[in-house]
Amino acid sequence: MDKLKVMTIFGTRPEAIKMAPLVKELERRPEIDSLCCVTAQHRQMLDSVLDIFKLKPQFDLDIMEASQTLSTITSKCLLGLEKVFHEVRPDLVLVHGDTSTTFAGALAAFYQQIAVGHVEAGLRTWDRYSPFPEEMNRSMVGRLAELHFCPTPANRRNLEAEGVTEGVFVTGNTVIDALQTTVAEEFRFGEDVLNRLDYRNKKVVLVTCHRRENYGQPMEDIMSALAQIARTHPDVELVYPVHLSPVVQKCAHRHLDGMENVRLIAPLDVEEMHNLMARSYLVLTDSGGLQEEAPALGKPVLVLRRETERPEAVEAGTAKLAGVDYGRIVQLADQLLDDPAAYAQMAHAANPYGDGRACPRIADGILYHFGRRPRPPEPFLS
Ligand code: UD1
Ligand code: UDP
């Protein structure tokens, strides 16, 4: 029998981190011919992940521009992928999550009548403008895809509510697979300031923030709250690897430059990020990936958003929805920094997002769908 040609398509940092272990798994399967295409919607932040996981994509569309808009990203991906599909015709295209690359990848494959598999399927806030444009991206990919790899049972229920019941597998999130390869007891950071931090006697607060729906006043308020938290807690070291988006860079530096216990640093590579998180006291973030990683490492998370499509950690008691309001962010952070009982209540490990075996389940699900396995994989039960 011919090998199945499976092409993974991704473009941004989080997609790369979550697709890398899957590409490796597909490469290990003798029945699969694995191909990888990057759009490079992110350039430096993508390349950093490709380096760490030693991935060499066969196709690179290199689309990133300094001030890219949703339309430029989407149109460049569509045109570039059309050419790729004229060169090779995969049996299945895999896209991940909810970015513009994800949506354009699924749409470009659909235009060529190539089957689409959606990894990290079924996350929903049910608010079309938040997160923006991710909620609509992933909903539309849910319509385009034939295969849906849901991280959790709740994600599958979301698809059911939209009438999607065929080709659905509950696998866990591949980020937990990635996490198992990166965290080490002994670790030296490339950024020396991180080697010199006093992780024992200081409370290291790890921050990230980048979402488009937070641009403007919400991001201003978040940054003011961070400044206030650092000012009022000399025992805190606030470490913030700032996303390369010019909007985020300007806002973060305007509010936080020059503060003694705030480290604004360049984006970390993924090994550094996971190891820093493992050594932190608390995580403040609007990132999807960090919301999944921190519970697995036993770190409380304050989510800097009004809603989340990842309610599992909130339900497990390790994350709280802080919102984007200055007063509430400061109040919740104060509580976790000043009240050991409140901290202890949240600082326990939970694994609602996966057991580290999502990639083998996805590969098995693909082989089952194409008639190369008699049974579907056992689902992940969170
Ligand atoms: C994108 C995704 C978002 C995801 C985020 C992960 C969309 C619409 N948004 O948002 O879902 O959560 O990635 O980080 O798909 N830049 C660089 N170098 C890089 C990366 C970005 O310089 O390696 C700068 C560029 O100026 C670029 C800007 O950041 O124009 C914004 O990048 P873009 O991909 O458009 O948006 P993100 O906010 O990163
Ligand atoms: N990350 C990283 N370096 C950083 C910030 C984040 O490696 O400086 C990783 C993080 O551990 C997670 C992923 O990038 O795996 C999340 O990406 P991001 O927050 O950009 O996007 P989101 O998950 O919100 O889509």
Can you put this structure into words, describing what you see?
The structure is a single chain. Helix 1 (13-28) packs parallel to helix 2, helix 1 (13-28) crosses helix 16 (358-369) and helix 3 crosses helix 4. Strands 3-2-1-4-5-6-7 form a 7-stranded parallel sheet, sandwiched between helices. The protein has a 6-stranded parallel sheet with strand order 10-9-8-11-12-13, sandwiched between helices. The longest helix has 18 residues, at 70-87. It is α/β, with parallel strands linked by helices and 382 residues long. It is built from 16 helices and 13 strands. The mean pLDDT is 97. The chain binds uridine-diphosphate-N-acetylglucosamine (UD1) and uridine-5'-diphosphate. Uridine-diphosphate-N-acetylglucosamine binds at residues 12-14, 41-45, 65-68, 70, 73, 98-100, 133-134, 210, 212, 244-246.
Please indicate the count of domains. Answer: 2
Helical segment count: 16
| CATH fold description of the largest domain | Rossmann fold
Question: How many strand elements?
Answer: 13
Order of helices and strands: EHEHEHEHEHEHEHHEHEHEHEHEHEHHH
Structural class: alpha/beta
CATH class of the largest domain: Alpha Beta
Radius of gyration: 20 Å
Which ligands, by name, code or SMILES, are bound? uridine-diphosphate-N-acetylglucosamine, uridine-5'-diphosphate
Major β-sheet annotation: 7 strands, parallel
- Corresponding CATH superfamily of the largest domain: Glycogen Phosphorylase B
The overall pLDDT, averaged over residues, is 97
Shape: globular
